[in-house]
């Protein structure tokens, strides 16, 4: 998959794609449907996705609480798996935010990227002040020579599929409900970083990862599936993970600590993808280390049973 970050610097190979446009945070089943429509709109054209980095919401409200379901790298990885050939991950800056709807259609879609067909959701807005509507987009397409398809919004179980609904499910400790809307397990991806090695001292060595910039799921312990993406231990594992601030040790900064079952080795510097399967319990502060270890034994036994049933 080729990633293009500036619509003003493209080559002939970057043009002529059939593209789905949106933020695609989580790449949920609604997003996947939009991408599939782009694939079907012109099967002979390269399949593309047009999105923005940073997320416009981060640009306009940089001090707002973290809300993203996945990092840009995790999103690109998921889109690659869906067969996307061109990822137009445009730098969202003052110049791009200032384009009127007509300027966006002319300068970005037509002149800059030379898109052949575009697909957007029914609630899509674009241009300065989000003043451009899907009806405007269809009119620009007829004028400028690109096709436009409007995708209807999806529902699952009577609930509209959306990144907001997924965030709510994760905040309430319902990762399986989130997975129904995502079409895949919700995953936290990142590099394993150094920790305080307390887990190793307790007989439960963990791989520690930051969750900075991501929407935090409900703090507590989860049954998880783990993919080690690179390095000598690359492969798939099962485990248990704790998300939160470690109240037993007066922690302050949230992270995720994952214990891989039946694993021996050093994962520092490796990239992990940790899928949240089931919420087991909230974070707790125990009377002592023995009580903590007893609970960790029970957590891992429960997680093994849950994962064995998948």
TrEMBL record:
It is an enzyme of class 2 (transferase). GO terms for biological process: FAD biosynthetic process; FMN biosynthetic process; riboflavin biosynthetic process. Its EC number is 2.7.1.26, 2.7.7.2. The keyword Zinc-finger does not apply. This is Riboflavin biosynthesis protein. Belongs to the ribF family. Gene3D superfamilies: HUPs (3.40.50.620), Riboflavin kinase-like (2.40.30.30). The gene is ribF.
